[in-house]
Structure formats: structure tokens, C-alpha cells
Specification:
The structure is a single chain. With about 350 residues, the chain is α/β, with parallel strands linked by helices. It is built from 12 helices and 8 strands. Strands 1-2-4-3-5-6-7-8 form an 8-stranded mixed β-sheet. The radius of gyration is 30 Å and the shape is elongated. Mean pLDDT is about 80; it is low at about 5-10 and about 40-50.
């Protein structure tokens, strides 16, 4: 009886040559899909390299004038410092018009002495349309690559503030519409600069920042702030920014945090291209009612946190692969229909 049972089992799993080839093809293709899914979840295989994602084209660079600023330190030493200035086309011919000013703070990797590298992300600001205002971009020196580095009068943010003072005296700037924004360590510099000069800015937008470690932030509660951060930023935790925003909201501040998708430090591409935060900045004016962020921005932030496709599709793909394998095996190994019994089954009957 046991021999008959074994023969019946073998007859049920035996496949025709064409069926064997088909099943082998299904399993091979399924294995390839599984490997691709695992690769998408493996750091470094398909990771987005934000360090090499930015570029500085000659056209963007040509839009920024090269300027020199004489800076006097506390020791009465005078240094000639360089910076870049974007002025709207035809601004000189419209002497009766004033313009908003954006103070741009670059990231750690753009520090240097070439007066060029810190314009790296300006193509995002100018690629769709010309910015309707003046942009000031100072470059941190290599020995002080962050905005709060160095002695008090040597800190790059202090120098940037001195340049703003000179521009206010020499350019047709609307003093009620001065904004600050920056990426990475420049985003952190936004918090520092806002807290140091709380009456200067009409609004700010820190991008991929480290937040602020200051517990007392009530001095900037009147300044509208829209911060951006990637959900899985590997270089700066979103928790620090969230804590800073919550402290501001607790004291009545108009502060918002938008979390973008991705396991990357780069949230500024989305901030520029998807959220168009610059339009929100330009809508703010000191002494007037705060314009809130777009109504749809919180939904996009929720989507980035909980409905990220790069997190949803791998398990869905795995489930699909397993279901396909089960279906294929059951299809090819199912018991033959009645009336078409194998010889071993007929012998049992």
C-alpha cells in the first residue's frame, strides 16, 4: 500500500517538459524581482546622492554680480570681502520702486574662497522664472565654514548682516520685505541669524537644518517660518527641527514644518519645485497679517511621512511575488480532474 501511495504522489507532482520549463521561468523571474526589491531597500544601492545632484551653470552664475565689501573688525582691521548680488533686470531704471531682499545662506560643502560655489543651488531659484527681488549670497571662508563659526565679529552671519546694512543704504530695498533662507548648515544658520537679528526679517525658510538648541525662542515668535526637512534625512534628524517648531508654536509663533519624502539630506528640490516656498516668502511683510502656508502642504507632508511609495511598493512587490509563486505551484501541481486519473490512481480504484 505504501508503494501505491508513493506512486500516486509522484504522479501528481510530475510535470510535462513544457510545464517544467514554464515553472522554471516563473521562478527565475520572481527571483529577479525579489533581488530588485532587496536592492531598493539596501543603503547605497539606489540611494540618492544629493552631494552630486546640484550644479552651477554659467547662465545662473552670470546673473549674479561680483561685489566687494570692506569689512571692519573689532580690531579696526579692514578686509576686502567678496559676495554675489542678484539684481532684477531693469531695476536701475526704476528708481521709484523698492525690491524685496533674500539673504541666502549656503551649506557646509559650498564654503570656500572662489566666490562661486555657494551659488550652487541658485538654479532652482531662477530656473522657472526670474526672482522678483534682490538676492545677496555671501560665501563662508574655508576656515569658518559655518555661519556661527569664529569670534563674534568674524562670524559669517555677522558679516552677512553688515553687507545687508550696506545694501539697505545703497540699493532700493524694501526694508519690510527682507527674508532669509538656506540649505543644510545654511538652514541652521537661518535659525541662528533670526534669533540674533529678530527685527530684521519678515520671514524665513530653513531647509534641511539642524533646528535650534536654544530653548527660548519667543523673540522670533512674530516671524513667519516655514521649515522643510526630509523624513529620513541621514545627516540631520527631523526631530530637532520638529522640536524647534513646536517650541515656537507653544509661544504663539507662526511656524510650520513640511516633511518631504526620501532617505536623503536634500529636501530643497521639493521645497523649490513642489511647494514653491519662495512665493510664500514674498507674500510676507513686516507689520502685516501673516500669510499661512498653502492649505494642501500639510497633506503632502502627511503623504511623505506615511504614504511613501518607496516604502509601500517593496512589501507589495514581495507579496505579489509570493502570491505568484503559490499560484504557479498550485496550478502545475494540482490534482488531475476526475475522469483523467493517472495509472497509479486507476490501479488504486
Amino acid at each position: 500500500m505504501k508503494c501505491h501511495d508513493a506512486e500516486l504522489f509522484i504522479s501528481r507532482i510530475a510535470l510535462a517538459p513544457d510545464e517544467e520549463a514554464h515553472l522554471e521561468s516563473v521562478m527565475r523571474n520572481s527571483l529577479i524581482v525579489v533581488l530588485l526589491v532587496l536592492a531598493s531597500e539596501t543603503p547605497g544601492w539606489g540611494a540618492y546622492d544629493w552631494h552630486n545632484s546640484g550644479f552651477l551653470d554659467r547662465k545662473t552664475e552670470s546673473l549674479f554680480q561680483e561685489k566687494t565689501f570692506q569689512y571692519k573688525t573689532g580690531q579696526d582691521e579692514i578686509a576686502d570681502l567678496s559676495y554675489r548680488l542678484y539684481v532684477p533686470e531693469g531695476a536701475d531704471a526704476r528708481a521709484d520702486q523698492t525690491w524685496p531682499l533674500l539673504v541666502w545662506l549656503h551649506g557646509y560643502g559650498e564654503a570656500g574662497s572662489d566666490n562661486r560655489e555657494h551659488l550652487r543651488w541658485m538654479n532652482l531659484l531662477l530656473q522657472e522664472r526670474r526672482f522678483p527681488g534682490i538676492i545677496m549670497a555671501y560665501q563662508c571662508p574655508p576656515e569658518r565654514p559655518t555661519w556661527s563659526a569664529g569670534a563674534d565679529d568674524e562670524q559669517p552671519m555677522v558679516i552677512a548682516r553688515a553687507i545687508v546694512n550696506e545694501l539697505l543704504a545703497s540699493c532700493p530695498i524694501d526694508a519690510q520685505r527682507i527674508y532669509v533662507s538656506g540649505v543644510s548648515s545654511g538652514g541652521t544658520g537661518c535659525w541662528d541669524m533670526l534669533l540674533r537679528y529678530p527685527e530684521l526679517f519678515a520671514a524665513g525658510a530653513p531647509l534641511a537644518s539642524g533646528g535650534s538648541n536654544r530653548f527660548e525662542v519667543s523673540s522670533i515668535a512674530h516671524v513667519p517660518l516655514w521649515a522643510f526637512h526630509a523624513y529620513k534625512d541621514p545627516e540631520a534628524s527631523v526631530d530637532n527641527v520638529r522640536a524647534t517648531v513646536k517650541r515656537l508654536q507653544a509661544v504663539g509663533g507662526n511656524a510650520w514644518l513640511t516633511v518631504t519624502a526620501g532617505q536623503t539630506h536634500d529636501c530643497w528640490n521639493a521645497a523649490f519645485q513642489e511647494y514653491h516656498f519662495v512665493d510664500w516668502l514674498l507674500a510676507q511683510r513686516q507689520g502685516e497679517q501673516v500669510v499661512p502656508i498653502p492649505w494642501w502642504a500639510p497633506w503632502k507632508s502627511f503623504q511623505s511621512r506615511y504614504l511613501q511609495w518607496d516604502e509601500v511598493w517593496p512589501p507589495l512587490a514581495l507579496v505579489s511575488v509570493v502570491a505568484g509563486l503559490v499560484w504557479a505551484v498550485r496550478r502545475h501541481l494540482r490534482v488531475p480532474h476526475a475522469g483523467k486519473n493517472s495509472p497509479a490512481e486507476n490501479e488504486l480504484h
